[in-house]
Structure to design on (1091 residues):
């Protein structure tokens, strides 16, 4: 009887430890789970990190207009100029549009920048399809070099009716040090 | 039954009187339709909780008095009742649904950020706010102006505190009344939160992401708020001041700012040719230092190591000039040292670097001119 | 006095047992006895309570008047942070663990906890963990980013205390997890024959459920502080937008732990008052099975409400609605419990010994905390309450007049059993009344401060908040001083007093009252028969 009591205890302890380790793993699993959840729902305003296919476009909804605003946000200490060519455009859902962003490295040394996009309202993010975006890659600029960077996008016609304005903000980070290390 | 209803009605009227609303005990009704809805919801839940509390605590006090052993009360033996359990599960659920309905409606209203008339970009950083009128070339920092003599009482009483102590800034945010104003909120460093109670607007400023909020202010006036997310040592010192103006006045103000901005840009360009004397640099440098640098690096230049290094005798302040300029203009990533390049004019930057290189016995004798700043930091 | 013959119920016994406990410091260092370990946890918790309380005194001293009088803002942030960490992880949780250790084996008729050596280790790593945390004050500054340590304030913008913080929290977490395993195995495997689950005292149930919550969420805390460590020192970007991460992800993971954590801190309190109220009402607990189901529902629901701490982070509407509804739903089983306590008292035969006074105060004041919690659940209004003193009022009502008062109730209830003496009732009643009045002076005005617009975690405030802050500070100093009365009561009681019978409270039920007072070093070497 003592034997089976001991065994019961050992089994229970084993199961509880498995639970502990599983929950520890679950904590880390929440990281990709969060990304997946946000990808599907666009809930934190994160847009796709890969290019959408042009052929995904199902047709242009000419009855609807959506205003798309562009914001450039340069993190403090990043000595580049960075701004959109136009502050806003009006598009039909399904229509492919090209806009450009200007960036200039005003220092005299080579630098590397990374832009991170964020969309408001968050729910609209998953409908904002970027076919070509400078944010997919890191941007290298030599001292005093400038460049016009393209953003080619369309808005999925499935976007909910109540979204009439969409704001896309790019935050520019200096990743020169990160690349060098 | 009627008398009881009348009683509740009177109680409701009593609690909803304006005096109660704007008393120092209660939430503000605010100056927007949304803030009024929010206030009403707050009062509804408060009433319901008060009523439930009175009933439950009443029963407890009743039994404490009437069911006391010392009064000779003999204990009953009942200890369960499925019927009663169901009752006091279902009734609260019904009450909760009654609360959830208006709450849902108000939330749907709040989350509708579309069709705005004006968009303002709000950026929080340690420890100030930055405002930019979207697509209008007007932008500025908004910094606390309560002087140190008022808030630093560590060596005595200090100066008398002003009426808007800790809630005053150099450049308030101006918005028009009766227009839907949309805020796009983000941060340059840690999480902050932009909150104006009079509008019932509070949204976190998350670095790398934008959050939206909107308001339509019904009454002109000055409205004050505070940062609502712990963001470091001066979290309590970065207030928000919004001035709501009638539309025509707002338009005039905006145009004035736009022109002032152009003039300031011209002045900056012109200042590139300026040559200031050591005295001029030290004077401007000292006032700039006291306003922007002393909070962390202290008036005596000794800082608060290790978080805020000393500038007195610091290798940066007596060493390579362009490195010194760079750190002031561009900040130091991953530390509390902000980038002051956008906050200060070229003259102020030149002056403050000069001051730091010569004050407290640093005595390098260096004079930095605006052209040097531009050359070193690519301004 | 019972001698303890060797037993055949399974758990190993030291052959030296019939010589009584060892003497001196070695006794305490090496003990595997649940009563000794329980006492150590309780003393440790009380010392931590006074330490964290001193930090609160510093906070209230600075906030006594507008203006910065005593400390600089950064040190103020260190005080608020470490006050929170100590109270949560050093006072409330160890106190409940101490009560679990002392009472659970006796209540289920077991001779000790299932894993006595693990039990010893679980305790002794705690002083070690807190030494690491407190040491940071002298090594560049203690954590200053709030007990909730949001990124990136706690990572990229930290003051260097992050490493100390993470290691200390890891060790505390291990202690809690090991303790929880011990509690679960003990309850599942060592109940006396005849004690089915539905015959266990509710106290045992609440600790049982709490232990499962600990197993589920403490590892997640371990995960998130590990991510914090790697983000700060090893270049990962879990919470850094520049590297593709998201600061809000931190909040999701933290609160996924954090919300069940606050239920971990209240469920045992529910168990305590479900023991004391029936005793002093001389009436069985009303709705025992309903209480078990309500406690379980609260535990399940606690996993799906976490984002109600995050309504202002930019959550979409559907998220806000979901979390608002679920949070409101938790009010239902909680309300059921309050009604059940009320019904236990109703038409009972009530006497007002000190444990009962604390228990009644718990029911009323915890309910007030529950009401402010319900108000906070209403997402649109939360936009006005969030990060203000309204929240501070809410959680101090549920944690101080809630958890802490229940711990006082438990201490007074079982002191006779632990020490063999009755405590000085006059002194204890003084402790009660001083605490009751001062705690309300301390925390009730905070509701008004929050509604009037005073944010949290600020060392100085606008002038319209001055009057209430002064009263709050006075209440704070008074509450702090009142706890010294409790210390006096306990020390006096240990040293002597009126000898306590096996069952000093005539309405009490439970196996612990069948053994003498003080409880013998070893009890229930032979399991009792339960009918």
């Amino acid at each position: 009887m003592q034997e089976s009591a001991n065994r019961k205890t050992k089994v229970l302890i084993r199961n509880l430890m498995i639970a502990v380790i599983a929950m520890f793993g679950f904590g880390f699993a929440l990281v990709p789970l969060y990304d997946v959840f946000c990808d599907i729902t666009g809930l934190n305003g994160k847009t796709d990190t890969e290019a959408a296919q042009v052929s995904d476009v199902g047709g242009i909804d000419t009855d609807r207009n959506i205003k798309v605003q562009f914001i450039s946000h340069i993190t403090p200490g990043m000595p580049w100029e960075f701004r959109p060519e136009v502050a806003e455009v009006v598009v039909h859902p399904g229509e492919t549009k090209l806009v450009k962003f200007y960036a200039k490295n005003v220092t005299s040394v080579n630098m590397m920048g990374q832009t991170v996009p964020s969309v408001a309202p968050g729910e609209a993010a998953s409908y904002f399809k970027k076919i070509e975006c400078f944010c997919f890659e890191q941007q290298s600029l030599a001292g005093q070099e400038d460049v016009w960077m393209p953003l080619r996008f369309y808005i999925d016609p499935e976007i909910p009716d109540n979204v009439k304005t969409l704001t896309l903000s790019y935050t520019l980070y200096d990743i020169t040090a990160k690349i060098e290390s | 039954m009627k008398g009881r209803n009348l009683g509740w009605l009177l109680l409701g009227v009593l609690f909803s009187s304006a005096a109660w609303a704007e008393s120092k005990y209660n939430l503000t009704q605010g100056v927007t339709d949304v803030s009024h809805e929010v206030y009403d919801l707050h009062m509804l839940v408060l009433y319901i909780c008060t009523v439930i509390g009175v009933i439950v605590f009443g029963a407890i006090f009743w039994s404490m008095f009437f069911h006391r052993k010392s009064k000779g009360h003999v204990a009953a033996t009942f200890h369960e009742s499925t019927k009663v359990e169901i009752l006091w599960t279902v009734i609260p659920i019904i009450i909760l649904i009654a609360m959830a309905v208006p709450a849902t409606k108000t939330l749907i209203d709040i989350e509708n950020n579309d069709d705005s008339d004006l968009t303002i970009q709000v950026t929080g950083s340690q420890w100030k706010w930055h405002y930019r009128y979207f697509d209008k070339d007007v932008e500025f920092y908004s910094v606390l102006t309560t002087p140190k003599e008022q808030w630093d009482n560590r060596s005595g009483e200090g100066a008398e505190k002003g009426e808007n102590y800790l809630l005053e800034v150099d450049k308030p945010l101006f918005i028009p009344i009766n227009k839907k104003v949309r805020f796009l909120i983000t941060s340059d460093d840690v999480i902050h939160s932009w909150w104006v109670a009079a509008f019932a607007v509070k949204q976190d400023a998350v670095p790398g992401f934008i959050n939206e909020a909107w308001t339509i202010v019904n009454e002109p006036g000055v409205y004050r708020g505070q940062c609502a997310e712990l963001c470091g040592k001066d979290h309590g010192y970065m207030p928000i001041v919004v001035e709501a103006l009638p539309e025509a006045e707002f338009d005039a103000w905006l145009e004035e700012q736009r022109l002032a901005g152009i003039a300031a840009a011209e002045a900056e360009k012109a200042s590139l040719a300026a040559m200031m004397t050591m005295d001029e640099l030290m004077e401007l440098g000292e006032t700039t230092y006291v306003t922007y640098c002393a909070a962390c690096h202290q008036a005596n230049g000794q800082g608060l190591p290790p978080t805020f290094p000393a500038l007195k005798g610091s290798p940066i302040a007596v060493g390579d000039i362009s490195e010194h300029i760079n750190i002031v203009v561009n900040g130091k990533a991953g530390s509390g040292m902000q980038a002051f390049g956008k906050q200060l004019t070229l003259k102020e930057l030149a002056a403050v670097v000069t001051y730091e290189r010569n004050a407290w016995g640093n005595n390098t004798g260096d004079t930095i001119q605006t052209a040097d700043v531009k050359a070193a930091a690519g301004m | 006095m019972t001698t303890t013959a060797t037993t055949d119920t399974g758990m190993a016994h030291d052959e030296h047992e019939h010589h009584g406990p060892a003497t001196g410091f070695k006794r305490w260092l090496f003990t595997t006895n649940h009563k000794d370990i329980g006492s150590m946890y309780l003393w440790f918790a009380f010392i931590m309570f006074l330490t964290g309380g001193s930090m609160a005194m510093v906070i209230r001293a600075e906030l006594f008047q507008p203006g910065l009088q005593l400390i600089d803002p950064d040190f103020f942030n260190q005080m608020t942070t470490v006050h929170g960490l100590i109270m949560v992880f050093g006072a409330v949780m160890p106190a409940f663990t101490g009560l679990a250790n002392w009472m659970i084996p006796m209540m289920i008729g077991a001779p000790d906890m299932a894993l006595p050596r693990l039990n010893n280790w679980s305790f002794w790593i705690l002083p070690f963990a807190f030494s690491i945390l407190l040491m940071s004050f002298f090594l560049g500054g203690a954590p200053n980013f709030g007990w909730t340590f949001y990124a990136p304030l706690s990572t990229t913008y930290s003051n260097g205390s992050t490493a100390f913080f993470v290691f200390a929290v890891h060790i505390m977490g291990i202690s809690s997890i090991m303790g929880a395993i011990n509690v679960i195995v003990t309850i599942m495997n060592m109940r006396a024959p005849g004690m089915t689950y539905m015959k266990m005292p509710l106290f045992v149930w609440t600790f049982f459920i709490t232990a499962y919550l600990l197993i589920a969420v403490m590892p997640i805390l371990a995960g998130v502080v590990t991510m914090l460590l790697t983000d700060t020192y090893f270049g990962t970007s879990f919470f850094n937008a520049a590297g593709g991460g998201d600061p809000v992800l931190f909040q999701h993971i933290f609160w996924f732990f954090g919300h069940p954590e606050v239920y971990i801190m209240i469920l045992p309190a529910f168990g305590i008052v479900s023991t004391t109220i029936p005793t002093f009402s001389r009436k069985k607990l009303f709705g025992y099975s309903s209480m078990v189901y309500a406690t379980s529902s609260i535990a399940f629901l606690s996993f799906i409400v976490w984002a109600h701490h995050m309504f202002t982070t930019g959550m979409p509407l559907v998220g806000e609605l979901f979390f608002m509804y679920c949070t409101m739903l938790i009010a239902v089983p909680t309300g059921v419990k309050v009604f059940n306590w009320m019904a236990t008292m109703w038409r009972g035969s009530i006497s007002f010994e000190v444990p009962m006074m604390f228990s009644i105060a718990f029911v009323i004041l915890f309910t007030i905390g529950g009401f402010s919690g319900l108000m906070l659940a209403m997402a649109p209004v939360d936009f006005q309450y969030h990060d203000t003193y309204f929240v501070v009022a809410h959680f101090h009502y549920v944690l101080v007049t809630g958890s802490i008062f229940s711990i006082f109730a438990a201490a007074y209830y079982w002191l006779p059993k632990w020490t063999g003496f009755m405590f000085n009732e006059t002194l204890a009643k003084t402790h009660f009344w001083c605490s009751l009045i001062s705690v309300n002076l301390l925390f009730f005005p905070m509701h008004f401060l929050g509604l009037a617009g005073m944010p949290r975690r600020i060392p100085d405030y606008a002038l319209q908040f001055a009057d209430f802050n002064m009263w709050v500070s006075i209440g704070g100093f008074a509450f702090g001083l009142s706890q010294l009365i409790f210390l006096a009561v306990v020390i006096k009681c240990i040293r002597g007093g009126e000898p306590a019978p096996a069952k000093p409270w005539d309405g009490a039920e439970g196996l612990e009252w069948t053994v003498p007072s003080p409880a013998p070093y070893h009890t229930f070497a032979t399991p009792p028969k339960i009918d």
